[in-house]
Amino acid sequence: MLRSVLFLVPALFASWQFAAAAPPLQRYESVRPLMGTAAMIIVYAPTQEKAEEGINAAFAEMNRQNGILSDYEADSEVTRLGRASPGKMKIGPELWDVLAYSETVSDATGGAFDVTVGPLTKAWRRMRRRQEIDSQAIAELLPAVGYQKLKLDPATHTAEVIAGDMRIDLGGVAKGSIIDAGLRKLAEYGLKQALVDAGGDMAIGDPPPSSDGWKISVAQSKQEGAEVMLVELANCGVATSGDAYQFVEIDGKRYSHILDPHTGYGVTTSRTVTVFAPTAMQADAWASAISVLGPTKGFAALSQQANHAAAVTTLQDEALVVEKTPNLDAWITAH
Protein backbone atom coordinates (compact mmCIF):
# COMPACT_ATOMS: atom_id res chain seq x y z
CA MET A 1 0.00 0.00 0.00
CA LEU A 2 2.80 2.41 0.84
CA ARG A 3 4.38 1.92 -2.57
CA SER A 4 1.08 2.69 -4.26
CA VAL A 5 0.74 5.94 -2.34
CA LEU A 6 4.28 6.97 -3.12
CA PHE A 7 3.66 6.27 -6.80
CA LEU A 8 0.37 8.21 -6.87
CA VAL A 9 1.59 11.42 -5.28
CA PRO A 10 4.30 12.20 -7.88
CA ALA A 11 1.80 11.42 -10.64
CA LEU A 12 -0.66 13.96 -9.26
CA PHE A 13 2.11 16.52 -8.86
CA ALA A 14 3.20 16.02 -12.44
CA SER A 15 -0.38 16.47 -13.62
CA TRP A 16 -0.67 19.75 -11.69
CA GLN A 17 2.60 20.95 -13.19
CA PHE A 18 1.30 20.17 -16.71
CA ALA A 19 -1.94 22.10 -16.13
CA ALA A 20 -0.09 25.09 -14.73
CA ALA A 21 2.19 25.14 -17.74
CA ALA A 22 -0.64 25.19 -20.30
CA PRO A 23 0.06 27.73 -23.04
CA PRO A 24 -1.72 31.09 -22.73
CA LEU A 25 -4.64 31.82 -25.03
CA GLN A 26 -3.71 33.62 -28.22
CA ARG A 27 -5.92 35.53 -30.66
CA TYR A 28 -6.62 33.92 -34.04
CA GLU A 29 -8.90 35.14 -36.81
CA SER A 30 -10.08 34.08 -40.23
CA VAL A 31 -12.03 35.96 -42.92
CA ARG A 32 -13.93 33.99 -45.56
CA PRO A 33 -16.83 34.62 -47.97
CA LEU A 34 -20.24 33.78 -46.55
CA MET A 35 -23.80 34.76 -47.48
CA GLY A 36 -22.63 37.23 -50.11
CA THR A 37 -20.38 39.11 -47.70
CA ALA A 38 -17.08 38.68 -45.86
CA ALA A 39 -17.47 36.88 -42.54
CA MET A 40 -14.84 37.03 -39.84
CA ILE A 41 -14.31 34.70 -36.91
CA ILE A 42 -12.07 35.71 -34.01
CA VAL A 43 -11.21 33.21 -31.29
CA TYR A 44 -8.84 32.89 -28.37
CA ALA A 45 -7.28 29.45 -28.33
CA PRO A 46 -4.25 27.71 -26.76
CA THR A 47 -2.82 26.66 -30.14
CA GLN A 48 -3.19 27.49 -33.80
CA GLU A 49 -4.22 23.90 -34.48
CA LYS A 50 -7.09 24.14 -31.99
CA ALA A 51 -8.18 27.48 -33.43
CA GLU A 52 -8.13 26.23 -37.03
CA GLU A 53 -10.08 23.12 -36.10
CA GLY A 54 -12.89 25.12 -34.50
CA ILE A 55 -12.93 27.86 -37.14
CA ASN A 56 -13.12 25.34 -39.98
CA ALA A 57 -16.00 23.56 -38.26
CA ALA A 58 -17.83 26.85 -37.65
CA PHE A 59 -17.56 27.98 -41.27
CA ALA A 60 -18.66 24.54 -42.45
CA GLU A 61 -21.74 24.73 -40.22
CA MET A 62 -22.61 28.25 -41.33
CA ASN A 63 -22.31 27.29 -45.00
CA ARG A 64 -24.48 24.24 -44.35
CA GLN A 65 -27.18 26.37 -42.78
CA ASN A 66 -26.93 28.97 -45.53
CA GLY A 67 -27.72 26.12 -47.94
CA ILE A 68 -30.93 25.56 -46.01
CA LEU A 69 -32.05 29.16 -45.38
CA SER A 70 -30.98 31.16 -48.44
CA ASP A 71 -33.57 31.93 -51.13
CA TYR A 72 -30.64 32.54 -53.49
CA GLU A 73 -29.95 28.79 -53.41
CA ALA A 74 -32.15 27.04 -55.99
CA ASP A 75 -32.48 23.84 -53.96
CA SER A 76 -32.44 25.24 -50.44
CA GLU A 77 -35.17 24.10 -48.08
CA VAL A 78 -36.69 27.58 -47.92
CA THR A 79 -36.78 27.80 -51.73
CA ARG A 80 -38.49 24.41 -51.94
CA LEU A 81 -41.05 25.57 -49.41
CA GLY A 82 -41.91 28.49 -51.67
CA ARG A 83 -42.26 26.19 -54.66
CA ALA A 84 -44.70 24.05 -52.67
CA SER A 85 -47.21 26.89 -52.47
CA PRO A 86 -50.03 26.37 -51.96
CA GLY A 87 -49.27 23.23 -49.98
CA LYS A 88 -47.67 21.67 -46.94
CA MET A 89 -44.09 20.52 -46.35
CA LYS A 90 -42.20 18.97 -43.45
CA ILE A 91 -39.21 21.12 -42.55
CA GLY A 92 -35.99 20.59 -40.63
CA PRO A 93 -35.04 22.11 -37.26
CA GLU A 94 -32.95 24.98 -38.68
CA LEU A 95 -35.75 26.34 -40.88
CA TRP A 96 -38.34 25.62 -38.22
CA ASP A 97 -36.52 27.68 -35.59
CA VAL A 98 -36.16 30.66 -37.92
CA LEU A 99 -39.77 30.56 -39.14
CA ALA A 100 -41.14 30.11 -35.62
CA TYR A 101 -39.18 33.07 -34.30
CA SER A 102 -40.10 35.14 -37.36
CA GLU A 103 -43.78 34.50 -36.65
CA THR A 104 -43.25 35.79 -33.11
CA VAL A 105 -41.71 39.04 -34.38
CA SER A 106 -44.44 39.41 -37.01
CA ASP A 107 -47.09 39.16 -34.31
CA ALA A 108 -45.25 41.66 -32.11
CA THR A 109 -44.88 44.21 -34.93
CA GLY A 110 -48.25 43.93 -36.61
CA GLY A 111 -46.68 42.39 -39.68
CA ALA A 112 -43.99 45.05 -40.19
CA PHE A 113 -41.60 42.09 -40.17
CA ASP A 114 -42.81 39.44 -42.60
CA VAL A 115 -40.79 36.65 -44.22
CA THR A 116 -43.50 36.07 -46.85
CA VAL A 117 -42.44 39.30 -48.56
CA GLY A 118 -40.36 37.19 -50.97
CA PRO A 119 -42.44 37.82 -54.14
CA LEU A 120 -41.96 41.56 -53.66
CA THR A 121 -38.25 41.11 -52.93
CA LYS A 122 -37.82 39.33 -56.25
CA ALA A 123 -39.76 42.04 -58.09
CA TRP A 124 -37.69 44.82 -56.50
CA ARG A 125 -34.45 43.13 -57.51
CA ARG A 126 -35.70 43.35 -61.08
CA MET A 127 -36.89 46.95 -60.68
CA ARG A 128 -33.53 48.04 -59.25
CA ARG A 129 -31.76 46.60 -62.28
CA ARG A 130 -34.16 48.36 -64.66
CA GLN A 131 -34.27 51.58 -62.62
CA GLU A 132 -38.06 51.77 -62.87
CA ILE A 133 -41.03 51.18 -60.57
CA ASP A 134 -43.63 48.65 -61.72
CA SER A 135 -46.65 49.68 -59.64
CA GLN A 136 -48.91 47.16 -61.33
CA ALA A 137 -46.59 44.27 -60.46
CA ILE A 138 -46.45 45.40 -56.82
CA ALA A 139 -50.24 45.55 -56.62
CA GLU A 140 -50.58 42.10 -58.18
CA LEU A 141 -48.05 40.54 -55.79
CA LEU A 142 -49.36 42.02 -52.53
CA PRO A 143 -52.13 39.38 -52.15
CA ALA A 144 -49.43 36.68 -51.94
CA VAL A 145 -47.83 38.45 -48.95
CA GLY A 146 -48.94 38.01 -45.35
CA TYR A 147 -47.33 36.06 -42.54
CA GLN A 148 -50.73 34.64 -41.52
CA LYS A 149 -50.70 32.74 -44.83
CA LEU A 150 -47.80 30.63 -43.58
CA LYS A 151 -49.03 28.12 -40.99
CA LEU A 152 -46.64 26.22 -38.72
CA ASP A 153 -47.68 22.98 -37.05
CA PRO A 154 -45.42 22.19 -34.06
CA ALA A 155 -46.88 18.71 -33.68
CA THR A 156 -45.69 17.59 -37.11
CA HIS A 157 -42.97 20.21 -37.81
CA THR A 158 -44.70 21.10 -41.06
CA ALA A 159 -45.14 24.46 -42.73
CA GLU A 160 -48.26 25.07 -44.78
CA VAL A 161 -48.28 27.79 -47.42
CA ILE A 162 -51.84 28.92 -48.02
CA ALA A 163 -51.30 31.56 -50.71
CA GLY A 164 -50.22 30.65 -54.21
CA ASP A 165 -46.98 32.03 -55.66
CA MET A 166 -45.56 32.61 -52.20
CA ARG A 167 -41.82 33.02 -51.79
CA ILE A 168 -40.10 33.08 -48.40
CA ASP A 169 -37.37 35.68 -47.89
CA LEU A 170 -35.32 35.19 -44.72
CA GLY A 171 -32.94 38.03 -45.53
CA GLY A 172 -33.98 39.92 -42.39
CA VAL A 173 -33.33 37.08 -39.94
CA ALA A 174 -31.27 34.24 -41.44
CA LYS A 175 -27.88 35.93 -41.20
CA GLY A 176 -28.26 36.33 -37.45
CA SER A 177 -29.40 32.74 -37.05
CA ILE A 178 -26.49 31.44 -39.10
CA ILE A 179 -23.80 33.32 -37.18
CA ASP A 180 -25.39 32.21 -33.91
CA ALA A 181 -24.89 28.65 -35.18
CA GLY A 182 -21.26 29.43 -35.95
CA LEU A 183 -20.71 30.71 -32.41
CA ARG A 184 -22.33 27.58 -30.96
CA LYS A 185 -20.09 25.36 -33.07
CA LEU A 186 -16.99 27.17 -31.80
CA ALA A 187 -18.18 26.54 -28.23
CA GLU A 188 -18.49 22.83 -29.03
CA TYR A 189 -14.77 22.90 -29.79
CA GLY A 190 -14.03 24.60 -26.49
CA LEU A 191 -13.63 28.03 -28.09
CA LYS A 192 -16.06 30.10 -26.03
CA GLN A 193 -14.05 33.32 -26.15
CA ALA A 194 -15.13 34.05 -29.69
CA LEU A 195 -16.87 36.50 -32.00
CA VAL A 196 -18.50 35.94 -35.40
CA ASP A 197 -19.03 38.98 -37.64
CA ALA A 198 -20.90 38.84 -40.96
CA GLY A 199 -21.29 42.20 -42.63
CA GLY A 200 -21.57 44.05 -39.32
CA ASP A 201 -23.98 41.63 -37.67
CA MET A 202 -22.26 39.95 -34.72
CA ALA A 203 -22.70 36.90 -32.53
CA ILE A 204 -20.56 37.52 -29.46
CA GLY A 205 -19.36 34.93 -26.95
CA ASP A 206 -17.34 35.09 -23.75
CA PRO A 207 -14.98 38.08 -23.42
CA PRO A 208 -11.30 37.91 -24.39
CA PRO A 209 -8.75 37.10 -21.67
CA SER A 210 -8.39 39.75 -18.96
CA SER A 211 -11.28 41.75 -20.41
CA ASP A 212 -14.90 42.44 -19.55
CA GLY A 213 -16.00 42.25 -23.17
CA TRP A 214 -15.23 42.69 -26.85
CA LYS A 215 -14.54 46.32 -27.74
CA ILE A 216 -16.72 47.14 -30.73
CA SER A 217 -17.28 50.28 -32.78
CA VAL A 218 -20.85 50.66 -34.05
CA ALA A 219 -21.35 53.35 -36.69
CA GLN A 220 -24.88 54.73 -36.64
CA SER A 221 -24.77 56.03 -40.20
CA LYS A 222 -22.45 56.31 -43.18
CA GLN A 223 -23.12 60.05 -43.30
CA GLU A 224 -20.31 62.38 -42.31
CA GLY A 225 -20.50 63.38 -38.66
CA ALA A 226 -22.55 60.36 -37.63
CA GLU A 227 -22.30 59.13 -34.06
CA VAL A 228 -20.06 56.13 -33.45
CA MET A 229 -20.87 54.05 -30.40
CA LEU A 230 -17.88 52.47 -28.71
CA VAL A 231 -19.16 49.54 -26.68
CA GLU A 232 -17.78 46.57 -24.78
CA LEU A 233 -20.01 43.50 -25.06
CA ALA A 234 -20.10 39.79 -24.28
CA ASN A 235 -22.58 36.94 -24.75
CA CYS A 236 -25.07 38.75 -26.97
CA GLY A 237 -25.96 39.61 -30.55
CA VAL A 238 -25.77 42.89 -32.46
CA ALA A 239 -27.31 43.69 -35.85
CA THR A 240 -27.46 46.84 -37.96
CA SER A 241 -29.98 47.42 -40.71
CA GLY A 242 -30.38 50.34 -43.07
CA ASP A 243 -30.11 51.72 -46.56
CA ALA A 244 -26.49 52.89 -46.48
CA TYR A 245 -25.48 50.58 -49.34
CA GLN A 246 -28.60 48.84 -50.61
CA PHE A 247 -31.04 51.34 -52.10
CA VAL A 248 -32.20 52.67 -55.43
CA GLU A 249 -33.14 56.18 -56.55
CA ILE A 250 -35.93 56.27 -59.12
CA ASP A 251 -37.55 59.51 -60.32
CA GLY A 252 -35.75 61.40 -57.58
CA LYS A 253 -37.02 59.18 -54.76
CA ARG A 254 -34.84 56.92 -52.65
CA TYR A 255 -36.12 53.41 -51.89
CA SER A 256 -34.42 51.11 -49.40
CA HIS A 257 -33.95 47.41 -50.08
CA ILE A 258 -35.98 46.92 -46.89
CA LEU A 259 -39.61 46.57 -47.94
CA ASP A 260 -42.73 47.53 -46.06
CA PRO A 261 -44.89 44.39 -46.30
CA HIS A 262 -48.07 46.47 -46.04
CA THR A 263 -47.38 48.75 -49.02
CA GLY A 264 -45.03 46.62 -51.10
CA TYR A 265 -42.61 49.52 -51.49
CA GLY A 266 -39.11 50.06 -50.16
CA VAL A 267 -38.80 52.23 -47.05
CA THR A 268 -38.25 55.82 -48.17
CA THR A 269 -36.97 57.28 -44.90
CA SER A 270 -33.19 57.01 -44.74
CA ARG A 271 -32.34 55.45 -41.36
CA THR A 272 -29.87 53.12 -39.71
CA VAL A 273 -31.07 50.80 -36.96
CA THR A 274 -28.85 48.92 -34.52
CA VAL A 275 -30.37 46.38 -32.15
CA PHE A 276 -28.71 44.66 -29.21
CA ALA A 277 -30.28 41.38 -28.06
CA PRO A 278 -29.44 38.05 -26.42
CA THR A 279 -28.81 36.47 -29.84
CA ALA A 280 -27.85 37.69 -33.29
CA MET A 281 -31.04 36.21 -34.77
CA GLN A 282 -33.17 38.30 -32.43
CA ALA A 283 -31.13 41.43 -33.14
CA ASP A 284 -31.30 40.82 -36.90
CA ALA A 285 -35.07 40.43 -37.04
CA TRP A 286 -35.78 43.42 -34.82
CA ALA A 287 -33.36 45.67 -36.73
CA SER A 288 -35.33 44.85 -39.89
CA ALA A 289 -38.67 45.43 -38.16
CA ILE A 290 -37.72 48.81 -36.69
CA SER A 291 -36.40 49.89 -40.09
CA VAL A 292 -39.99 49.61 -41.30
CA LEU A 293 -41.78 50.85 -38.17
CA GLY A 294 -39.50 53.76 -37.36
CA PRO A 295 -38.24 54.58 -33.86
CA THR A 296 -41.52 55.58 -32.17
CA LYS A 297 -43.56 52.48 -33.04
CA GLY A 298 -40.46 50.30 -33.20
CA PHE A 299 -39.25 51.17 -29.71
CA ALA A 300 -42.77 50.65 -28.32
CA ALA A 301 -42.86 47.13 -29.75
CA LEU A 302 -39.28 46.38 -28.70
CA SER A 303 -39.99 47.44 -25.11
CA GLN A 304 -42.15 44.31 -24.76
CA GLN A 305 -39.15 42.10 -25.48
CA ALA A 306 -36.97 41.14 -22.54
CA ASN A 307 -33.32 42.19 -22.72
CA HIS A 308 -33.42 44.09 -26.03
CA ALA A 309 -32.20 47.63 -26.77
CA ALA A 310 -31.78 49.76 -29.89
CA ALA A 311 -30.54 52.97 -31.47
CA VAL A 312 -31.88 54.62 -34.63
CA THR A 313 -30.23 57.35 -36.68
CA THR A 314 -32.55 59.08 -39.17
CA LEU A 315 -31.62 61.55 -41.88
CA GLN A 316 -34.06 64.46 -41.55
CA ASP A 317 -33.62 67.64 -43.61
CA GLU A 318 -29.94 66.86 -44.16
CA ALA A 319 -29.39 66.45 -40.40
CA LEU A 320 -28.85 63.22 -38.48
CA VAL A 321 -31.28 62.59 -35.62
CA VAL A 322 -30.26 59.90 -33.12
CA GLU A 323 -32.85 58.19 -30.92
CA LYS A 324 -32.18 55.44 -28.40
CA THR A 325 -34.30 53.17 -26.26
CA PRO A 326 -34.29 54.32 -22.61
CA ASN A 327 -32.52 51.12 -21.52
CA LEU A 328 -29.66 51.28 -24.03
CA ASP A 329 -26.93 52.64 -21.76
CA ALA A 330 -27.82 50.23 -18.97
CA TRP A 331 -28.02 47.35 -21.45
CA ILE A 332 -24.53 48.02 -22.79
CA THR A 333 -23.12 48.36 -19.28
CA ALA A 334 -24.67 45.04 -18.26
CA HIS A 335 -23.25 43.17 -21.23
From TrEMBL:
Catalyzed reaction equations: L-threonyl-[protein] + FAD = FMN-L-threonyl-[protein] + AMP + H(+)
Stored Pfam families: ApbE
Record-listed Mg(2+) binding positions: 172, 284, 288
Residues making up the signal peptide according to the UniProt record: 1-21
Enzyme class: transferase
InterPro entries listed in its UniProt record: ApbE, ApbE-like_sf
Listed cofactors: Mg(2+); Mn(2+)
Gene Ontology molecular function: metal ion binding; transferase activity
Enzyme Commission identifier(s): 2.7.1.180
Cofactor note: Magnesium. Can also use manganese.
Keyword check for Signal: yes
Entry keyword set: FAD, Flavoprotein, Magnesium, Metal-binding, Signal, Transferase
Provenance organism: Blastopirellula sediminis
Full protein name: FAD:protein FMN transferase
Top-level taxon of origin: Bacteria
Gene3D superfamilies: ApbE-like domains
Family: Belongs to the ApbE family.
